[in-house]
Amino acid sequence: MAKIEIPPFVKNMGSKLIAYILNISKENAGKLLNSDFELPQEKEKILCQFVEICREVRAKHIDNTNIDLHMLHDLFRQFIKGEHIFNSLHEQAGGEKATSLECDDKVLQNLNKVFNKLYPLFLVNTTGWQQHFDVVLGDIGRASRDLPEGKHLYEEIKKDTVISSIVKQKSEQIGTHGYYKSSTGHGGSIQLISLPEMFLLNSFRLMRMREAFSLEAFSEAAEYTVNTFRRCTTGEAVEVPMFLGFSNISIDDIGDIKTDWGVIRPVGEGISELVPRHSSITRISGKQYRLGFVLESTYPYKVNFTDEDEDRKSPKEINDAAKRINEINENISFCFSLACDRNPPVSMSLAWTMVFDPINHGTQVTSNSIRRSPMPFYLVRDTKESNALIEWSKRIKKTDDKNIQLAIKRILSAINERTNPIDSFIDTVIAWENLFGANAELGFRISVSIAKLLGETETQIKEIQKKVNDYYNKRSKIVHGVNEVTNEEAINFREECLDITLKVIRKLYTEKVELISLNKSAERSKELAIV
Questions:
Q1: Which of 116, 171, 283, 319 could lock 175 by a disulfide, CB 3.0 to 4.6 Å apart?
Q2: Cβ-based neighbour number of residue 375 at 10 Å
């Protein structure tokens, strides 16, 4: 049988939707879109029918700027006897009619029914038109208004005394509203009639944030979304999922890693739909790697509801959020630099932050300006390193290291931020001063302390002391303009001094943790000098 010529506007909808409509595997759907798979005659007819429907809808918008986006808008409203056309074609192809999950909570039960009816619409690929992702989801949300299940959902929301308590005075439709301000910084008016769409789309977003896609996964996300909304209406402070995206490190070969600050996972398809593409891609030995990873943690979340717009005030939890993000960023970077023993050290940057906001429409993503990392990218490729990450996260978490925070910040600055190797070298020596310096004889105190920590024999101690003292003196001459160094020399200074510094830090955390808690650097150098 001849292969079907599939037009680009159908291919752009993606293999997941085609697989669903034709009741074939996603792998075969991908081959079909690449003209590498032949359908049986009955399914070929269904595909031709689908292509013709798309062609007719698309023709209506021939004069519009974004013709394919308008085509989707109309396709999402194509219902026949209460069933979306995508579901009807799926059943024609031998697919079973999905049954929504039942539960005692009437709001959740009807929310599951709405998702069940609109399930194939969420399969449409939006990767090719990233900037229109929220527009496409908005069209799906509006399609839910036409469903009897959508109307039933709204009625159950109105009956729910906890959810509906966000508004004090109720009237018909759009007039039933109140005001809010959340600890994410967002706020405005909120209407009861908008809640069905908001619950539907926010539950879908949460499901995709966690790289899941099924009726069961949606039901779990919906339960969390609705119940979190209920808790917030009573004034309760909660923890909501927060996702941090980092660049320059790949964990594609490892998978999920559970740390004390949250779960680290590779950048997956779901996250890629929702956030900017800040993780570049490279190929090594024929395999593709995404140079970035995601950490799922939590965010302090609270909402203030009011009757009047002018009464809105941000919850105090907003002040804790930025501090938490900064702490996680520093701790996870510190953890990688200690767990992955490489020279030059492993470097990373926070690319974006996404907080799940159950009361706000849309995905809340904050993008950071991406600096080019001063260090080459890194692939975490074996369980030895992933286990080391877990162990170091526990070790850092339980250690009271507030007295060496300046040193840690300088180390991370040298690794992650300083593109000029001279600046990185200087930051590293400043870290030495914070760890072991004093008011006098700085070079001597620092070099002896580091040598005593790292050397095992008298010969090694003398060699390390001389090397560290030489680097300290070189730093002083560079800062005061006495010496100039080439870029190659500066890189060597940076990498050798960072290697020494990380070895010192590992030693402190594993064998000399009592020194970390000492209040002053002079006390540390004194303790080491008498060893």
A1: 171
A2: 19
Provide φ and ψ at 172, rounded to 5°.
-75, 140
Tokens of 93: 């192809």
Burial class (CB in 10 A: 0-12, 13-18, 19+), 71: buried
* pLDDT average, residue stretch 23-30: 95
Nearest in space to 181 (alpha carbons), one of 292, 34, 301: 301
Torsion angle defined by CA atoms of residues 226, 228, 230 and 234, in that order, rounded to the nearest 10 degrees:
-170
Q: What is the mean pLDDT of residues 293-318?
A: 82
In the β-sheet with 187-191, what is the strand arrangement from edge to edge? 187-191, 177-182, 303-306
C-alpha dihedral sign at 431, 436, 438, 444: negative
H-helix segments, 416-457 = 421-436, 442-454
Q: Which helix (H) or strand (E) holds 259?
A: strand 257-259
> Is the pLDDT assigned to residue 1 strictly greater than 50?
no
Q: What is the Cα–Cα distance from 93 to 376, expressed in whole angstroms?
A: 50
> Any idea where the domains of the chain sit in the sequence?
1-97, 399-529
Distance CA 495, CA 191 (A): 57
d(CA 307, CA 446): 62
Residues 147-182 pLDDT 10s: 999 999 999 999 999 999 887 655 555 556 678 888
Any idea what DSSP says for residue 171?
-
CB 187 within 8 A of CB 306: no
Cβ distance 127 to 12 under 8 Å? Answer: no
Q: What is the dihedral of CA 171, 184, 221, 193, to 10 degrees?
A: 10
Alpha-carbon span 531 to 342, nearest angstrom: 29
Do 90 and 120 form a contact (C-beta atoms < 8 A)?
A: yes
Q: Is the pLDDT of residue 130 over 80?
A: no
Q: Which of 319, 340, 331 is nearest to 389 (CA)?
A: 340
Residue with tokens 């609705």: 226
Question: Which tokens go with 339?
Answer: 């767990």
SS3 343: coil
- Does residue 410 have a pLDDT over 90? yes
The interaxial angle of helices 106-118 and 215-233, nearest 10 deg, is 140
Q: Which residues pair with 303 in a beta bridge?
A: 182
Helix (H, G, I), strand (E, B) or coil at 240: strand
Residues in the chain: 531
State the Cα–Cα distance between residues 91 and 97, nearest whole angstrom.
7
